[in-house]
């Protein structure tokens, strides 16, 4: 059965950020992920993890201001030092908070030979730093509908980079939402790419809401994950249609349920 992590950057927005850990725990999640925790100190986040018993399983490198930084810096030639500083920041959080995986943001820039070479150098250097801490670096293609200028735009290109980088702890973040929009055939692509995959994320296509409607048959995809032997976390990285707890019906078969159906819990 898949293990789901609540993306508390997007989910439980009806609560202040630090209260989302407890809300996720109350609804049955055992893990969380978060794109950018850096507005809060390590101590503040650790307090919430200790109090709830949640595992924080994924963070991103800090994207910065998309209008200025281009949604990450991993492939932006000439800004290597800034990118590595963000990797160092993410590794500090990951080491202190026992986070196993970091998504290294590639940035908004053209896929030129110069930027591609920069990306390989940057991600390899990040992977070597992460290996010393027993952490994994992830790269993720983003679809051109949501991020029209993003550097990494297909799983095929990502797989080529992973082979070139050649580090076991540098892997693919397989977001079914993005993959469906970019390439389709999500279950088949997962099976093809599984040896490279380090983390999975989900959301409905095309609206990125709860995974209970739209183009993808998520119950079938979850069966594919089970049959494949995938043991990693599945990040619920979606924008709830309304109150998060009211939209968790999709997750009830997997041990996660709205607060209203968990009477007697605290």
Describe this entry's structure for a reader.
- It is built from nine helices and eight strands.
- It is of the alpha/beta class.
- It has one domain: TIM Barrel (Alpha-Beta Barrel), CATH 3.20.20.150.
- The protein has an eight-stranded parallel barrel, surrounded by five helices.
- Helix 8 (about 185-195) runs parallel beside helix 9 (about 220-230).
- The relative contact order is 0.14.
As for the number of domains, it is 1
Q: Cα-atom Rg, whole angstroms?
A: 18 Å
| Total count of strands | 8
Please report the first level of CATH classification, the CATH class.
Alpha Beta
Strand content: 5-15%
Total of DSSP H or I helical runs spanning 4+ residues: 9
Provide a quick synopsis of the model.
The protein is 36% helix and 14% strand.
Keywords:
8 strands; 8-stranded parallel β-barrel; alpha/beta; 266 residues; globular; TIM Barrel
How are the elements arranged and paired?
Layout: E1 3-7, H1 20-26, E2 31-34, H2 42-52, E3 55-60, H3 66-69, H4 80-97, E4 101-103, H5 113-132, E5 136-139, H6 155-165, E6 170-175, H7 176-182, H8 186-193, E7 197-202, H9 218-228, E8 233-236
Parallel strand pairs: 1-2, 1-8, 2-3, 3-4, 4-5, 5-6, 6-7, 7-8
Helix pairs in contact: 4-5, 8-9
């Amino acid at each position: 059965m898949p293990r789901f992590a609540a993306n508390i950057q997007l989910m439980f927005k009806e609560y202040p950020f630090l209260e989302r850990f407890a809300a996720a725990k109350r609804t049955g999640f055992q893990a969380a992920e978060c794109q950018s925790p850096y507005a809060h100190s390590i101590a503040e986040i650790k307090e919430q993890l200790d109090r709830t018993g949640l595992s924080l399983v994924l963070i991103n490198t800090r994207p910065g201001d998309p209008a200025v930084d281009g949604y990450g810096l991993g492939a932006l030639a000439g800004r290597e030092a800034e990118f590595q500083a963000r990797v160092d920041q993410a590794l500090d959080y990951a080491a202190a908070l026992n986070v196993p995986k970091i998504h290294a943001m590639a940035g908004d820039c053209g896929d030129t030979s110069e930027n591609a070479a920069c990306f390989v150098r940057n991600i390899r250097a990040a992977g070597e730093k992460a290996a010393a801490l027993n952490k994994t670096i992830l790269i993720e293609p983003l679809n051109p509908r949501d991020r029209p200028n993003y550097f990494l735009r297909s799983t095929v290109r990502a797989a080529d980079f992973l082979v070139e980088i050649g580090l076991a702890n540098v892997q693919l973040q397989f977001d079914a939402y993005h993959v469906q929009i970019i390439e389709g055939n999500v279950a088949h692509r997962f099976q093809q790419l599984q040896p490279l995959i380090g983390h999975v994320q989900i959301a409905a296509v095309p609206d990125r809401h709860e995974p209970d409607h739209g183009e993808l048959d998520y119950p079938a995809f979850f069966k594919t994950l089970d049959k494949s032997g995938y043991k990693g976390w599945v990040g619920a990285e979606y924008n709830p249609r309304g109150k998060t707890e009211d939209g968790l019906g999709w997750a009830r078969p997997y041990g996660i349920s709205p607060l209203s159906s968990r009477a007697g819990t605290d």
